[in-house]
């Protein structure tokens, strides 16, 4: 465990309230002031939704710089997205410029003496030469450590970072050329996605494929051998389903190991590899942590409830032992559980990041919501009440009830019981149309439970004359025209994509009888192919439910049958849907 040298901090000259008044801002609440003026020790802040955590984090940086406790470049801030990092960085830089302009900067001191002689004249004049804190994402910070110190643990410092698309192509090539049997009835594309997900999960949990295989085998054994209650002899359906899912993951571990080996052979690395390597460096090379602690005297960790096992290992190894780390988060807003994050990381922070004297870190809370009025907060607290009392096993953190800001209005919460999704979309559009005009500067957001609801909502909004756009690529990719285009490309590239082919066929207005004729024709081709001499193929797949599975309908050898061997399947190219259906009907037995 690292050790932090205790130093005598300079006397505080400016309070958080005085700084806010000098910068023309609202004075902080008692909770915000406690966080901003907290001593340079490990600190956990449980911040409810809309409680101004970004504003308060920026205020803490400004307070520390104004009182000479740290220099701006000695502050490290980490968050999850580039957008959040840019927002926090912009707020901090603007405040620091104004701080220099009003002359509230106290020279920072370190163990040897002053770090700066005084305010920078250029900065005092409002220029851009103010020293900037280092604010980045967790992944980019881990990537920098991996690049700079990889040689210390025998890793390749010049490994090239690949995108998600490149990683998918790499795994897909492995899957297509795999020569071992895979006891799964999944399509190659689904197997590729599963391998990528497993590889990422292992990196996030710092597990090797062999270790994960052993854990999964123990879990599967427990599921299979567990005796059902009563006189029932076979396992329950849900238990059997879970056991099959675990067995599929065990079968994919060889592909996961092959994927990792191929990345090493080609000098490649993905984002999960970067974080895992950085955690290994931080744990095995204490000098790296000493260097970073000396470089960054204060560390701010945003959205701490979403940190994974690897990220937690990295941060605790680098900045443990009493270093001034401030973690901000809300367990009720944890969204990355699927990749190893756990809201319990907030509850374990005081023990993981103990103070220099060995005592657990201090915990504060931000409970004043600045976004909503009273009625909305009452509804939100009612909905979130089970989350505050649901956890009974293991450590837990107390989440405060959200309180209204000073001067908050009464607010209004509307609800309705409608017949279907189309009625809901129409009601939302009518609600917004009654409150929005083209000259209004206000905007509104519609939140949906799932992406499939986007088209109906967008159509209803536009029908009501409201301009609307869907954030992210999900809305574009879900539009019918783009879905048809993707289905065409997928079927042209890989005729094994039956889902894409079925979409194209249904868009050609083929009926159920036509599709049955196509099915009969496919079966005839399979029987003919089975009677001919078989050729080996580059991929061997065990098809548990599709004995006549063929990955392409062009004249190339592909797997057919349970043994995973293939024969050419020559399918004459039809001239339009009518000719195709007629050919299938004539060939049907």
What does this structure look like?
It is a single chain. The chain is an alpha/beta fold. It folds into 4 domains: 25-140 and 277-389, 3-Layer(aba) Sandwich (Rossmann fold), CATH 3.40.50.300; 162-266, no CATH class; 421-477, no CATH class; 513-587, no CATH class. It is built from 22 helices and 12 strands. The chain has helices spanning 16-22, 30-36, 53-66, 82-101, 121-124, 138-149, 164-176, 188-205, 209-225, 237-266, 271-284, 286-295, 309-319, 344-352, 374-389, 421-433, 454-463, 473-477, 480-493, 498-507, 512-531, 577-587; strands at residues 43-47, 75-79, 134-137, 160-161, 268-269, 298-301, 325-329, 362-366, 368-369, 403-404, 558-560, 565-567. The strands form 4 sheets. It has a 6-stranded parallel β-sheet, sandwiched between helices. It has a two-stranded parallel ribbon with strand order 4-5. Helix 15 (374-389) links the parallel strand 9 (368-369) and strand 10. Helix 2 packs across helix 3 (53-66). The longest helix is centred in the middle third of the chain and has 30 residues, at 237-266. The model is unreliable at 1-7, 110-129 and 536-589 (pLDDT under 50).
């Amino acid at each position: 465990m690292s050790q932090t040298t205790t130093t005598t901090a300079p006397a505080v000259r400016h309070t958080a309230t005085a700084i806010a008044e000098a910068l023309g801002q609202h004075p902080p609440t008692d909770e915000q002031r406690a966080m901003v003026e907290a001593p340079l020790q490990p600190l956990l802040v449980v911040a409810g939704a809309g409680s101004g955590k970004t504003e308060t984090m920026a205020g803490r940086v400004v307070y520390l710089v104004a009182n000479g406790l740290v220099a701006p470049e000695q502050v490290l801030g980490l968050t999850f997205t580039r957008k959040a990092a840019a927002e926090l960085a912009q707020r901090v830089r603007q405040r620091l410029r104004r701080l220099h302009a009003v002359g509230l900067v106290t020279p920072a001191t370190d163990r040897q003496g002053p770090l700066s002689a005084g305010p920078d004249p250029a900065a005092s004049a409002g220029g851009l030469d103010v020293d900037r804190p280092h604010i980045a994402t967790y992944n980019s910070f881990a990537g920098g450590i991996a690049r700079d110190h990889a040689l210390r643990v025998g890793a390749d410092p010049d490994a090239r970072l690949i995108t998600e698309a490149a990683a998918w192509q790499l795994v897909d090539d492995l899957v297509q050329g795999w020569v071992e049997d895979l006891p799964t009835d999944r399509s190659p594309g689904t197997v590729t996605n599963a391998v990528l997900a497993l590889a990422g999960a292992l990196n996030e949990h710092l597990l090797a494929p062999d270790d994960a295989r052993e854990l999964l085998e123990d879990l599967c054994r427990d599921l299979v051998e567990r005796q059902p209650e009563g006189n029932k002899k076979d396992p329950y359906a849900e238990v059997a389903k879970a056991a099959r899912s675990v067995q599929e993951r065990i079968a994919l571990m060889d592909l996961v190991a092959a994927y990792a080996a191929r990345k090493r052979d080609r000098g490649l690395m993905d984002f999960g590899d970067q974080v895992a390597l950085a955690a290994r460096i931080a744990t095995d090379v204490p000098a790296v942590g000493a260097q970073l602690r000396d470089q960054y005297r204060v560390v701010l960790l945003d959205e701490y409830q979403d940190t994974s096992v690897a990220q937690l290992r990295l941060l605790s190894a680098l900045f443990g032992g009493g270093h001034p780390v401030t973690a901000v988060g809300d367990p009720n807003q944890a969204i990355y559980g699927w990749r190893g994050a756990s809201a319990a990381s907030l509850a374990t922070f005081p023990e993981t990041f103990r103070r220099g004297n060995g005592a657990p870190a201090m915990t504060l809370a931000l409970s004043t919501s600045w976004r909503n009025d009273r009625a909305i907060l009452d509804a939100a607290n009612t909905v979130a009440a089970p989350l505050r009392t649901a956890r009974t096993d293991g450590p837990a953190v107390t989440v405060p009830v959200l309180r209204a800001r000073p001067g908050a209005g009464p607010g209004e919460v509307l609800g309705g019981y409608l017949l279907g999704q189309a009625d809901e979309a129409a009601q939302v559009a009518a609600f917004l149309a009654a409150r929005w005009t083209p000259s209004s500067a206000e905007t509104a957001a519609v939140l949906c439970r799932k992406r499939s609801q986007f088209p109906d909502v967008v159509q209803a909004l536009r029908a009501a004359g409201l301009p609307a756009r869907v954030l992210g690529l999900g809305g574009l990719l879900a539009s019918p025209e783009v879905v048809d285009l993707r289905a065409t490309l997928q079927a042209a590239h890989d005729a094994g994509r039956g889902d894409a082919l079925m979409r194209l066929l249904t868009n050609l207005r083929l009926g159920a009888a036509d599709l049955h004729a196509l099915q009969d024709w496919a079966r005839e081709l399979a029987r003919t192919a089975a009677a001919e001499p078989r050729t080996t193929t580059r991929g061997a797949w065990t098809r548990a439910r599709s004995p006549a599975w063929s990955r392409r309908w062009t004249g190339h050898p592909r797997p057919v049958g349970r043994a995973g061997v293939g024969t050419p399947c020559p399918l004459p190219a039809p001239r339009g849907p009518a000719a195709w259906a007629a050919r299938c009907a004539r060939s049907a037995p």
